[in-house]
From TrEMBL:
It comes from the Eukaryota. The keyword Chaperone does not apply. It is a multi-pass membrane protein. This is Sodium-dependent phosphate transport protein 2B-like. Its main location: membrane. NCBIfam families: 2a58. Pfam families: Na_Pi_cotrans. Keywords: Cell membrane, Membrane, Transmembrane, Transmembrane helix. It is found in: Apical cell membrane. Belongs to the SLC34A transporter family. Signal peptide: none annotated. It comes from Saccoglossus kowalevskii.
């Protein structure tokens, strides 16, 4: 039952309704006391005057003074059975829910199978067991298709620029620049396998050495995680879901960056990867097993929309073609090159020789390919933008469908069984093997899908839905890193050119051992798992508070940073060194102070035990958040002004219409009386007035509003 209180005096008192008794009490005395309604009886000190209505009687009854004195903190109450209850006046705090844990076990609200009618059983089989799994399969398939289309879109938009960046061999002599180039090219192409294949072609053409290609392969490993970070943005509607999905996506980034920070200096100092892979290639009798006839599961759909000629990219990277000289869209399936014969004269040791050689003249295009953009003669960049919009719409639609259908399926016992299956550990002493099995599963599914980006992007929504924990996502991500190296190995072994074959295998082995070494460092020892998982949680928590941080993270890490390093490399390697020294010094100082603040604050001066000694914009994102909010509010005000302007114009049009019907005298009378004219429908016509008068008259009488 509810208790209704009307407090007339301003005394700051604390009123509580206990034991479910309803009452209407009026406190008329301003004395600053605390009052409690106990078992339907109001109690106060002797100086209090209380009138109780409701539980105290049908009419107003004055309650005599209660001699019992109540302590300010503890009250002894009696329930309906006469038993005493102790109330200390404090409310129990709600138990905090761990945002990184799985959802608690859910109770199914659906009737049991035995309780269903025949029609209900048929409906559950058709919808729950057939239709919904089929919809999940369709959504997942087209989700993968959207990722493939997004990769092709980025290739069309920035492929020529990526090839041009790779064609400047002088820039790639700097390992840091090579790292950033590999990362940027992978971001633009949305495929580390494509980047690796271009690097292999460059090594085979003697444009760069294998030692210079290794940092580029590491950069390709960094850039491949941008796709699932974009996918995480599709769950930005809910803060907790976005926290989990963004952390699940960026745990891949954190692992890759930590691997580069450890292994790139090691490689530069010792040549570990180069020497190891050289020994394997030279000491093995490796043979090619023919052409690469791999077919992706998305090819039947993607090839009907767009087809990319990757040989053009390789030609740009090798310097054989100029950017924009030839379209990346493979529009012609049948064409023929026309050559002409020319006589060549040569003199060797005083002897003259003549010969006839064929020189390329032009190309005859015979038949166009059969896909959507084959008959479109737009520029590659415009087609890429159109394709990017299409892929993003398809991606968000499929992501929404997956989340909705999975949410409807994962209820009650089904949800609990799925969570236990995906996050279960082996029993007893074998529990430590669970993570390694997850790594193998991640590698297997990545080899099956032929893309680590696709596999991790499929897992990201499940982390946001709390079906998979971040701790389980981590080994699956490591397995995805391994799986994509097997894909590049398969492509290298399928090469028919002997020189291309050996160097391609060596670079693919560098990619493999880079990831294997990183896994050995950051997974077997539980303590070493904390940096990547902790970094992902930090990014997830930050994004949950400031949602714009996800976009800023993408732009800074995957675009601004590599572009800045490239520009500095063009100016000179000395500028890259200065930039790295500044960034490294700041990072070292911040990490050191952070560790000392947590472990040994007494070692620091008092002012450095917190970050308050720094300006707020250097220690918090709040100032930037306030600026962004002001900009958004400003945009909202502009929209509101536009709406107000449009509404005022509409009112002026209505007034002019009314003036055209009524005389000026009638209009002046209406305006004078403060009424608002409104036009009626055409059917109201001549039988009714052409306007209605709606007014709200407010009069104040002794402070009472009527």
């Amino acid at each position: 039952m509810e208790g209704h209180y009307k407090h007339i005096g301003d005394d700051g008192g604390n009123y509580k309704h206990l034991n479910g008794v309803s009452a209407l009490c009026k406190h008329l005395v301003d004395d600053g006391k605390d009052y409690k309604h106990l078992n339907g009886v109001s109690s106060s000190s002797k100086s209090d005057e209380v009138v109780c209505n409701g539980a105290c009687g049908a009419g107003e009854t004055e309650i005599p003074d209660v001699p019992t004195e109540l302590e300010s903190n503890t009250v002894i109450l009696e329930d309906g059975n006469g038993e005493q209850i102790e109330d200390d006046g404090t409310e129990k705090e709600e138990e905090e829910v761990d945002p990184w844990s799985l959802l608690p076990d859910l109770q199914s609200n659906q009737p049991k199978w035995s309780e269903l009618t025949t029609c209900g059983k048929v409906k559950r089989i058709l919808i729950g067991w057939i239709l919904k799994p089929f919809l999940i399969f369709v959504f997942v398939y087209f989700f993968i298709v959207s990722l493939a289309l997004m990769g092709d879109a980025f290739t069309l938009i920035g492929g020529s620029a990526a090839g041009a960046a790779l064609s400047d061999a002088t820039l790639l002599e700097n390992p840091i620049t090579g790292l950033m180039v590999g990362m940027l090219v992978t971001v633009l192409l949305q495929s580390s396998s494509a980047t690796t294949s271009i690097i292999v072609a460059m090594v085979a053409a003697n444009m760069i050495e294998v030692e210079e290609a290794i940092p580029m392969v590491m950069g390709a490993n960094l850039g491949t995680s941008v796709t699932n970070t974009i996918v995480a943005g599709g769950q930005a509607g809910d803060r907790d879901t976005f926290r989990l999905s963004f952390a699940g996506a960026t745990v891949h980034d954190c692992f890759n960056w930590l691997a580069v920070l450890v292994l790139l200096p090691l490689e530069l100092a010792t040549g570990y990867l180069y020497n190891l892979t050289s020994a394997i290639v030279e000491g093995s009798n490796l043979e090619s097993f023919g052409s690469d006839d791999r077919v992706k599961i998305t090819d039947p759909v993607v090839n009907k929309i767009i087809q990319i000629d990757m040989e053009v990219l390789e030609g740009i990277a090798l310097g054989l073609l100029e950017p924009g000289e030839k379209s990346l869209v493979d529009r012609w399936c049948e064409c023929e090159d026309v050559y002409y014969n020319t006589t060549v004269f040569a003199s060797v040791n005083g002897t003259n020789y003549t010969g006839v050689v064929e020189v390329y003249n032009y190309t005859i295009y015979i038949e166009r390919c059969d896909f959507l953009f084959a008959h479109c003669d737009l520029a590659d960049q415009i087609i890429g933008v159109i394709l990017l919009v299409m892929s993003l719409i398809l991606l968000m639609g499929c992501l929404l469908g997956i989340v909705k259908v999975l949410g409807s399926m994962l209820r009650g016992s089904a949800a609990n069984a799925t969570k236990r299956l995906l996050n279960a550990n082996f029993p007893g002493y074998l529990s430590w093997l669970t993570g390694y099995v997850a790594i193998l599963l991640g590698a297997f599914f990545t080899m099956l899908l032929q893309s680590s980006s696709v596999f991790t992007s499929m897992l990201t929504p499940l982390v946001g839905m709390r079906v998979i924990t971040l701790a389980r996502m981590y080994p699956l991500t490591l397995g995805a890193n391994l799986g994509t190296t097997f894909t590049s190995l398969l492509a290298a072994f399928a090469s028919s050119d002997s020189q291309d074959f050996e160097e391609g295998v060596q670079i693919a082995l560098c990619h493999l051992f880079f990831n294997l070494t990183a896994i050995v460092i950051f997974y077997p020892i539980p303590f070493m798992r904390r940096p990547p998982i902790g970094g992902a949680k930090f990014l997830g928590n930050t994004t949950a508070v400031y949602r714009w941080f996800s976009l800023a993270y993408l732009l800074i890490v995957f675009l601004a940073l590599p572009i800045t390093v490239l520009l500095l490399s063009i100016a000179g390697d000395i500028y890259v060194g200065i930039f790295l020294i500044i960034v490294g010094t700041i990072a070292f100082v911040v990490i050191t102070i952070k560790i000392l603040q947590a472990k040994c604050p007494c070692c620091l001066p008092k002012f450095m035990r917190t970050w308050d000694f720094l300006p707020k914009f250097m220690r918090s994102l709040e100032p930037y958040d306030s600026v962004i909010k002001k900009c958004m509010v400003g945009c909202g005000k502009c929209k509101a002004k536009c709406r107000c302007k449009n509404s005022s114009e509409d009112k002026e049009e209505v007034t002019s219409d009314v003036k055209s019907v009524f005389s000026e005298k009638d209009v002046e009378m209406v305006v004078k009386n403060g009424y608002e004219m409104q036009t009626l429908g055409d059917n109201d016509g001549l039988d009714n007035p052409m306007f209605t008068v709606e007014s709200e008259i407010e009069s104040t009488n002794n402070g009472i509003t009527t």
